[in-house]
C-alpha cells in the first residue's frame, strides 16, 4: 500500500511540474528522505502529510484515491 501511495505522490508532483528538490526543501527534509516517501519506504507523520498536500495543492482525499 505504501508503494502505491508513493507512486500517487510522484504522479501528482510530476503533473504539478514540481521537482523533488523543491518539494523536499518546502517540506524541510532532505532529498534522500523525500525519495523514500515516493518509493513507499517510510510512513508519513500527519504533520508532514499536511505540509505535502499543501505544497502539491491538493486535498488529502486525492492521495487516497488510487487509480491503479
Helix and strand topology:
Layout (H helix, E strand, L loop, with lengths): L1 H14 L4 H8 L3 H8 L7 H11 L3 H5 L4
Helix pairs in contact: 2-3
Structure commentary:
The chain is mostly helical and 68 residues long. It has a single domain (2-64), classed as Orthogonal Bundle (434 Repressor (Amino-terminal Domain)), CATH 1.10.260. It is built from five helices and no strands. The chain has helices at 2-15, 20-27, 31-38, 46-56, 60-64. Helix 2 (20-27) crosses helix 3 (31-38). The radius of gyration is 11 Å and the shape is globular. The model has no long low-confidence stretch (mean pLDDT 92).
Total number of domains: 1
**Gyration radius from CA atoms, angstroms:** 11 Å
Strand content: under 5%
Looking at the structure, what is the overall shape? Answer: globular
Q: Could you tell me how far the N terminus lies from the C terminus, measured between alpha carbons in angstroms?
A: 11 Å
The tally of helices reads 5
Structural class comes to mainly alpha
What's the name of the CATH homologous superfamily? lambda repressor-like DNA-binding domains
Low-confidence stretches: none
What's the order of the H and E elements?
HHHHH
For this structure, what is the CATH class? Mainly Alpha
Number of DSSP strands? 0
Indicate the CATH topology.
434 Repressor (Amino-terminal Domain)
Amino acid at each position: 500500500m505504501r508503494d502505491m501511495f508513493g507512486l500517487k505522490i510522484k504522479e501528482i508532483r510530476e503533473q504539478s511540474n514540481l521537482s523533488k528538490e523543491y518539494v523536499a526543501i518546502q517540506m524541510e527534509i532532505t532529498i534522500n528522505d523525500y525519495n523514500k516517501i515516493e518509493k513507499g519506504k517510510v510512513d508519513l507523520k500527519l504533520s508532514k502529510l499536511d505540509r505535502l498536500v499543501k505544497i502539491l495543492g491538493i486535498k488529502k482525499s486525492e492521495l487516497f484515491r488510487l487509480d491503479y
